Amino acid sequence: MMLSGDLSLKTQATMRWIQRVALAMLIVTLSSHLHAQSSGFSNDPEEAIDRLPLAALLIGDGNYDRARQVLAAVDSEAEDFDAPRYHTLSGLVALNLKEYPLAVQEFSQAIAAGQEAAVVYLYLAQAHFGAEDYVSTLKALDDAGESATQIPSAFFIRAQALWSLQRFDEAWSVLNEARVLFPDRASDFARRQVFLLVDQGLYQAALDLARELVVLSEGEITDALAVGNALINANQAPEASVLLEEALLRAPEDATVAKLLAQSYLAQNMRLAAAEVLRGSAYYNPDLLIEAAELFRQTGRLTEALTLNGQAIDQPKKLKQRLAILIGLERFNQAAAMMEDLERVQLLEEEDIRYALAYALFKTGDFEAARAQLFFLESPENFRKATELRRVMAECEQQPWLCL
Questions:
Q1: Cα–Cα distance between 362 and 237 in angstroms, integer?
Q2: Cα–Cα distance between 292 and 289 in angstroms, integer?
Q3: Degrees to nearest 5, angle at CA 226 with 221 and 227
Q4: For position 342, what pLDDT does the model report?
Q5: Which of 84, 125, 175, 284 has its CA 20 to 30 A from that of 197?
Q6: SS3 for 48?
Q7: How far is the C-alpha of 228 from the C-alpha of 277, rounded, in Å?
Q8: Residue 234: DSSP 8-state
Q9: What are phi and psi for residue 312, nearest 5 degrees?
Q10: Cβ–Cβ under 8 Å, residues 182 and 58
Q11: Residue 214 in contact with residue 186, Cβ under 8 Å?
């Protein structure tokens, strides 16, 4: 059973997300730096002929397309043409528009033209990182010198670049150094270390560090969810269950924790345990009643499933599930009596539901009503089942003792 709102993600997809976040964090940090540097320029129309300051202001405000238009109007043949700054700004436009190869080209030209600001190497590192050229990313960070040790995001990018090059020990050391240098971001770097451990298959170490991470992040549930999900996708559901059980104790009202914990149990074929988790969480989140009831139905605990179903609010889902449960309990009269309700919420437009109703009517002996429902079945599989049910009803009419 796949839980609704399924949180399952491939570990590689998780890592790509982390990479994008790291890149975005550094872009935001350095763009705000640029905006601060440019805030002294006027944007008065009479002074707009000085296009580079105007472009800088537009970039700082996030107006990248407009900044590109302004830069396109710059006269590169003018005596006072500032090539280092022009290419730096053009690179920032390309970087923020995720045109990474172009950004690499522009920043490289800025450096070749004499751009001496260390921050341009950080920009260049971002561009190489976005282009997945991790060797060049590391070189640009080294060329940035002291600047690359003052921004937490630069450590994220360095660690990710080393990680992508499978230089895991070095990535680990970078993250350790960052935890010391930026204690207020220690949980962020620890989180990255957990994923590094998972990626290397060191699941018990990842679980231990994840518990430490929960302390560092003051019980932040999202950390347990991220690590638990990564462990499930690494086929380490038992370790995920341990972490998520602790998370559920801290936040019993969190539906996401409950669903992911249930998913970890399902990965271990512990369907009843998953059902119990969702039943407990349904106290806080009634939307989980249908899913809890379905798991109980699948385990054969039909009476409990029916009880939970009766508390559900979503009428279409409730009635569809109730029909299946009643048929499973062989309460065919009750199932057949649901016809008006099923029609009211337009569930009879679903052929599987209509066939189930026809079967319930057949079991009550109302062959005429059953045939009326079978008439509407057209899909190959349901048409085949309808034909077989008609045959059985014909035999029952000819030899009633066969259907007693």
A1: 44
A2: 5
A3: 100
A4: 94
A5: 125
A6: coil
A7: 16
A8: T
A9: -70, 155
A10: no
A11: no
Convert the pLDDT of each residue in 208-239 to its tens digit. 888 877 776 665 688 788 888 888 988 889 98
* Token reading at 10: 């491939």
Cα 173 to Cα 195: distance, rounded to the nearest angstrom: 14
Tokens of 369: 């009503």
Residues 329-334 have a mean pLDDT of: 94
Is the confidence at residue 175, as pLDDT, over 60? yes
Q: Cα angle vertex 231, ends 210, 126, to 5°?
A: 75
* Helix 51-60 and helix 64-72, axial crossing angle in degrees, nearest 10: 170
Q: Within 10 A of 2 (CB to CB), how many other CB atoms are there?
A: 9
Contacts of 61 (CB under 8 A, 6+ apart): 35
Q: Give the residue-averaged pLDDT of 21-44.
A: 44
Q: Which of 224, 149, 228, 142 is nearest to 182 (CA)?
A: 149
Q: How far is CA 4 from CA 7, 89, 287, 341, in A?
A: 9, 46, 10, 24
Residues 159 and 172: their CA atoms lie apart, in Å, by 7
pTM: 0.65
Q: Give residue-wise pLDDT tens across range 70-118.
A: 889 888 888 888 899 999 999 999 999 999 999 999 999 999 999 888 8
Distance CA 305, CA 308 (A): 5
384: which 2 tokens? Answer: 């085949």
Query: pLDDT per residue over 57-74, tens digit each?
Result: 888 888 899 989 988 988
Nearest residue to 86 via CA among 98, 96, 97, 73: 73
Handedness of CA 387, 391, 392, 393 (dihedral sign): positive
